[in-house]
Amino acid sequence: MRTVLITGASSGIGKACAEVLASESKYRLLLCARRLERLEEVKQKIQSAHPTCEVFCFELDVRENNEIEKIWNNLPAAWRNIDILINNAGLSQGLEPIQNGNIGDWDRMIDTNIKGLLYVTKHTIPLMEQSVAPHIINLGSIAGKDVYPNGNVYCATKHAVDALTKAMRIDLLEKGIKVTSIDPGMVETEFSEVRFKGDKERAKDVYRGLTPLSGKDIAEIISFVLSRPAHVNINDLLVMPTAQANGTVVVRD
Ligand code: NDP
Ligand code: 8X3
Description:
This is SDR family NAD(P)-dependent oxidoreductase. It comes from Sphingobacterium chuzhouense. The protein is α/β, with parallel strands linked by helices. It contains 8 helices and 7 strands; from the N terminus they run βαβαβαβαβαβαααβ. α4 links the parallel β4 (84-87) and β5. It binds NADPH dihydro-nicotinamide-adenine-dinucleotide phosphate (NDP) and 2-hydroxyethylsulfonic acid (8X3). Residues 7-8, 10-14, 33-35, 38, 60-63, 88-91, 112, 116, 139, 141, 184, 186-187, 189-191, 194, 215 line the site of NADPH dihydro-nicotinamide-adenine-dinucleotide phosphate.
């Protein structure tokens, strides 16, 4: 059994990763996010479908380094050896030209997508020492490869994730930790609803007239990446809906 820590497992891609990996009977799951009640629902659903799958949930805001340190130091003994870290927690806030940008939105994206990912990674690496197949998967984005109109700060955070993934791959090489970046295009999750602060209609419009990726599509790709033999690492995987060419060009019905 390999122990997987998934950040942002209460929704979207993180939740789908939990469900897909649970279905494979070779993973035990450490799930965290800010909404504990949502995590408990994910756990319940998983355990009714896969009663033997071990799941441990805890509330975490990845922006809180002191909290992470405290929680990591107090993890139950059975959960102190981690094989796989999926750095998935992240968000976008707003879609405005930079001159109209909201500083609070910028801070939330930078603190979550860059600093949060760094804090979690820093505290998790020591817990991977015993693993025979340690692996870190970072959720980047097409926004970490391209910059699109009004995407400014979100794109910058995902470019930072791209740089950090490459840096981790160098720094962690001697430790034998695989590092992979998964870079999706449009995935229909709560992402756009969060970006547009609860405006469901505007969020829905993002995916109008095309078939976006689902969280499950990405989770199945992550499962494939994790299943490669010990000598094979997939460094970086850019994946988009067939109807999307790059960060800006899509075709709609
Ligand atoms: P969702 O909004 O559905 O899920 C985001 C998850 O991140 C939630 O579980 C949320 O949990 C968690 N999260 C957000 N902020 C924090 C925080 N401060 N501390 C802990 N957890 C947090 O979006 P997605 O599933 O789409 O997004 C997952 C990742 O995929 C993100 O990194 C996103 O940037 C990336 N991505 C998404 C794409 C898309 O089109 N959807 C495309 C490319 C990349 P909670 O609110 O309970 O804390
Ligand atoms: C999310 C993909 O292009 O909607 O990272 O910003 S995009």
